[in-house]
Structure formats: C-alpha cells, structure tokens
C-alpha cells in the first residue's frame, strides 16, 4: 500500500511541475497530498563557534488540487523506542533547552509546492550534555494535518540526530599522492587547508614538513623515502585563512630542473596556528591532528659505471663454482657479466648468516636505486630478504633499505633511501627465512656521479 502511495505521490509532483492554472478542473483527479521532504533519520553536524544553528524542514506539496492546508509539528518522544530497536542504538531525546521549534500551526498557501520552517538549535547548550562528536541525542519530529490536504502515509516523521564538532582547521586533501615528475605540466604540490564552518576569524597556519614525518611513514609502511630537499621546491611565504573564507591553497612550487634522482616524500601536517577575532587573539580554533598529506615521487637515476668498482670485503664466497664457469667469487657480483654469479660457500660446509659484501665505487655518488639480478631459474636460492647500507668513508654506515627477494630471471630494482656514498654494502640477513645458500648474478646502482 505504501509503495502505491509513493508512486502516486511521484505522479502528483510531476504533474504539478506543469504549472496548473487556478481554474484547472481537477474533479475526478487524485487529491493534493503533503509530506516531509526528507523523512527518516538524518544526522546534522554543527560546530562550537558560539552561534545558533538553523535546520530547515521542508514540506512538499503534490497533486493537482489547489487550496490552502495547515499542519502542526510536534515532538514525539515515544517514537525513540522503535527507532532504537530498528537502528540498534540507544538514542536519547534532545533536552528542550537545546532547541526551539514553533508550536504554531504552519499554513501552506494554495499554489505552493514547497514550504520551509526552521528548527533552531544551540550547540553550546548541547555540549553541556554530550561531548564533541557524540551522536547521543535525537529529536523525533512528527507533522500532523490540521486542515486541507492529507499527509502521505509514512512520510510524516523525521528524526534529527545532533552532532557537535570542535571547530578545527583541516587539510582538506589529506591522503597519499604520487607525482609524475617527468610530466610537462609539473607545477606544485598543493595543500588545501580550510574549515567546515562559517569563518569569522583571521587564521594563520604553520605546516610541519619534517624528516620525522618521513621516518614515521617509512617505519609504518616498510618504505625508504627521503625528505625532499628544500633546494627542489619553494614554499609559500605565508599561509593565511582570512575572515570570510573557508579554504586556502598553499602551493609548494617544484623546481623540475633541480630534482635529483631518488625516492622522495613531501609530508604535510598542521603544526600550529594563530587565530584572532576582530583583532583580538583567540583560542577557539583548533587543529585536526589526524590529517596528514603525503606527496611522493621516484626519479630513476643513471646507471652508474662499474669499471672502477672493487670488492672491499666479503664474508663468504665459493671458488668451486669456477669449475663450471659460474665464477662464485664476490667479484663476480660486479663484473657486468650475467653468466657468472656470486655464491655463498658450500664446498666443505657453509658459512653462518648474515652474509655481507662491501663494494667500493672508487668515488662518491648519489645512489637512488639498487638493482640485483638473481641467479634465477630452478636453482636452489632461498633468499627472502636483502638489506642495503651505504657509507662515505667505509666506517660509518647508513641503513637505506630492506626488501623482499625473489629468485627470478628478471632484475629486481629497489627504491633505496637516496644517499650520497662511496661504499655499498649488500647483506643477506639472518632473518626473514634466509638460509645459508645464496647466489646473485649482478649488483648495479643507479643515481648520479658527483
């Protein structure tokens, strides 16, 4: 029956859109009907900014008849039980001190297709009974017909759920974005900052762009990004959200000609703000501390020549592999010959993990990516993890990445933390399922000679 009424109402509303004349003969046609435009449960969000909020309640008129109608809006607390049962909630009735709704009849003049009334409510008062973000209170509102058109069955009740939020400045485009730094239209890393309420304040915003944010992301996600150096971009001089505006774009201009090979991250988080109202400092506006924005990109470096590379040290190798032309020595890791490979010792017993091979590149370079070519095929090569370290002096080492290893015939390219170094150390760690059998055909590095 309800579906039939809704279908009939739709026909009435479409028919009314044709602008019926006052003297249109509606005899024998379906009568006029009324309904709440948005019945059911509705969550409304307001902000603790010292204002009274107004929620519009729309009455829709359908049908072909023309005439005045009169309705009355009332609060029906007893409807909460059925709502809670249906929603599986424990809503409570909104205290009377928190809102204002007229108890006077509402007249709907002939010829009007929509009529609006307003419910006023007071966020500061609501916060006396619930905390920020709570969804505790509901106001069950019922529209009753007094005169004129009848109300469509099932469309005379609405339930307003009140949520009061703390006024905060947010990063509106928070998330993770990868930049194509080779694109011709490369321009800026935009940070959209704003508020979701009417802004009466002058707000100055300070952003945190730090290595600590990059380190935290790397730790949580197993990545090895480097913080984008300041030489590769220009930050805006000031970030301000003036009175009367709700959004501002802070554009960090990239310098394409200065971008070096590497795997970079530009993290953004709101560090602090200052707000004032009519020139007087205030502490009303807060920071959304959970909002974080990350721009990332990887720029492949040049393949670094290995003619001058030497093996500085190693923990294991297998000379016996040489009898089959496989090499087996540590030097075969960097001989630019994919037919040879380094192999861990097996003749007479294996060496204990971890295995290390230290390479001297003979000069300092920027290292952006490291590539290894596994032995591949059906060979027994149970390496699961590889670690890499770099050093300028061969004494002080920086960890630049841990990566999964697969014994494939294709090269594995690892986006290590971009560093300046003369030495590279490859490690087969004593963890992650690694065993005392290991073989790799070739190790290469990408970046830029300095």
Structural class: mainly beta
| Gap between N and C termini | 81 Å
Helix content: under 10%
Number of helices: 4
Radius of gyration: 35 Å
Identify the overall geometry: elongated
Contiguous runs where pLDDT drops below 50 for at least 5 residues: 1-28
Proportion of residues in extended strands? 35-45%
Mean of all residue-level pLDDT scores: 92
Main sheet, how many strands, which sense, barrel? 10 strands, mixed
The total strand number stands at 33
Give a description of the structure.
Strands 24, 25, 26, 27, 28, 29, 30, 31, 32 and 33 form a ten-stranded mixed sheet that branches. Strands 13, 15, 16, 18, 20, 21 and 23 form a seven-stranded mixed sheet that branches. Strands 2, 4, 5, 7, 9 and 11 form a six-stranded mixed sheet that branches. The N terminus is likely disordered. The longest helix is centred in the N-terminal third of the chain and has 15 residues. It contains four helices and 33 strands. Helices cover 8% and strands 45% of the residues. A hairpin with a 5-residue loop joins β29 and β30. With 450 residues, the protein is mainly β.
């Amino acid at each position: 029956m309800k579906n039939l009424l809704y279908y009939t109402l739709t026909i009435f509303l479409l028919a009314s859109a044709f602008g019926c004349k006052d003297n249109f003969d509606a005899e024998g046609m379906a009568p006029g009907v009324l309904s709440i435009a948005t019945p059911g449960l509705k969550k409304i969000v307001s902000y603790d900014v010292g204002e009274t909020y107004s929620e519009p309640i729309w009455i829709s008129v359908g049908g072909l008849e023309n005439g005045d109608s009169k309705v009355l809006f009332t609060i029906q607390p007893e409807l909460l039980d059925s709502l809670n049962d249906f929603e599986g909630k424990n809503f409570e009735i909104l205290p009377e001190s928190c809102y204002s709704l007229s108890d006077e009849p509402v007249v709907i003049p002939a010829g009007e297709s929509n009529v609006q009334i307003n419910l006023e409510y007071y966020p500061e008062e609501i916060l006396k009974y619930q905390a920020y973000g709570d969804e505790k209170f509901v106001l069950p509102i019922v529209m009753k017909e007094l005169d004129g058109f009848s109300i469509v069955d099932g469309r005379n009740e609405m339930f307003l759920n009140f949520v009061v939020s703390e006024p905060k400045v947010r990063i509106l485009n928070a998330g993770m974005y990868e930049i194509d730094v080779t694109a011709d239209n490369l321009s800026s890393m935009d940070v959209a900052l704003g508020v979701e309420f009417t802004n009466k304040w002058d707000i100055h915003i300070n952003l945190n762009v730090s290595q600590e944010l990059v380190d935290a992301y790397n730790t949580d996600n197993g990545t090895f990004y480097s913080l984008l150096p300041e030489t590769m971009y220009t930050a805006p001089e000031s970030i301000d959200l003036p009175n009367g505006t709700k959004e501002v774009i802070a554009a960090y201009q990239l310098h394409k000609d200065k971008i070096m090979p590497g795997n970079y991250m530009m993290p953004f988080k709101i560090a602090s703000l200052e707000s004032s109202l009519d020139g007087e400092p205030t502490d009303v506006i807060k920071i959304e501390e959970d909002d974080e924005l990350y721009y990332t990109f990887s720029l492949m470096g040049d393949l670094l020549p290995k003619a001058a590379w030497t093996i500085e040290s190693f923990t294991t190798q297998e000379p016996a592999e040489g009898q089959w032309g496989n090499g087996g020595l540590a030097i075969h890791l960097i001989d630019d010959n994919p037919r040879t490979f380094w192999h861990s010792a097996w003749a007479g017993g294996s060496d204990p993990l971890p295995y290390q091979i230290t390479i001297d590149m003979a000069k300092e370079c920027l290292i952006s990516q490291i590539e290894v070519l596994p032995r591949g095929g059906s060979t027994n090569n149970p390496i699961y993890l590889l670690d890499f370290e770099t050093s300028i002096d061969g004494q002080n080492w920086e960890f630049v990445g841990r990566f999964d290893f697969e014994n494939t015939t294709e090269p594995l390219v690892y986006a290590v933390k971009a560093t300046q170094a003369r030495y590279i150390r490859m490690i087969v760690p004593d963890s992650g399922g690694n065993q005392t059998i290991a073989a790799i055909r070739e190790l290469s590095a990408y970046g830029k000679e300095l």
